[in-house]
C-alpha cells in the first residue's frame, strides 16, 4: 500500500507505468481495484471508495494505491480526524466531549489524540514542508 495526493493522476501514471514499486523500484501497472471501503468524512458525509491496485512488473508484488484523504485501516478520513477531533482536542475539549459531538467512540478519539501527541514533531515538520511547497508553487505576484 502507498499513498498518493491525487488518485486520478495516479491512475493515469499507472497506465503509463510511471509509478515505481515501493519495494523494488520496478514499474507499477494497473491491477484492478481493491475492495470498497466506506469511510466517514467531514460533516455527515459518508464516502464509499474503491482504491486502485497496482502490480510491480519486476517483483510481482501488489499494492493498494490510497488517496492521501484516506487513513489506512480506518473508517474516518484525514479531514474528519484532523478537522474534528484533533482541532477540538487542541482547543481543550476532552475525548468524551469530542466523541459525543462528532459521533465517534471515545476510545477511538483517545487513540487519535494520543498518536498525534506522540508524533507532534513529525506532524509539525510535515506541515511546514507542505506550506513551504505550496508557497513555492504560487506565482510571485500572489505573494508580494
From TrEMBL:
Domain DUF6431 span(s) in chain numbering: 21-82
InterPro entries: DUF6431
Top-level taxonomic group: Bacteria
One Pfam family in the UniProt entry: DUF6431
Record-given protein name: DUF6431 domain-containing protein
Lineage: Bacteria, Bacillati, Actinomycetota, Actinomycetes, Kitasatosporales
Amino acid at each position: 500500500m502507498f499513498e498518493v495526493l491525487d488518485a486520478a493522476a495516479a491512475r493515469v501514471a499507472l497506465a503509463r507505468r510511471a509509478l515505481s514499486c515501493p519495494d523494488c523500484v520496478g514499474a507499477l501497472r494497473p491491477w484492478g481495484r481493491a475492495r470498497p471501503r466506506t469511510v466517514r468524512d467531514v460533516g455527515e458525509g459518508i464516502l464509499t471508495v474503491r482504491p486502485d491496485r497496482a502490480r510491480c512488473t519486476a517483483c510481482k508484488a501488489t499494492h493498494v494505491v490510497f488517496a492521501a484523504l484516506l487513513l489506512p485501516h480506518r473508517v474516518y478520513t484525514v479531514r474528519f480526524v484532523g478537522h474534528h477531533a484533533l482541532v477540538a482536542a487542541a482547543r481543550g475539549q476532552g475525548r468524551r466531549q469530542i466523541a459525543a459531538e462528532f459521533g465517534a467512540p471515545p476510545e477511538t478519539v483517545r487513540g487519535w489524540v494520543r498518536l498525534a501527541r506522540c508524533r507532534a514533531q513529525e506532524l509539525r515538520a510535515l506541515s511546514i514542508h507542505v506550506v513551504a511547497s505550496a508557497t513555492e508553487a504560487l506565482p510571485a505576484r500572489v505573494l508580494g
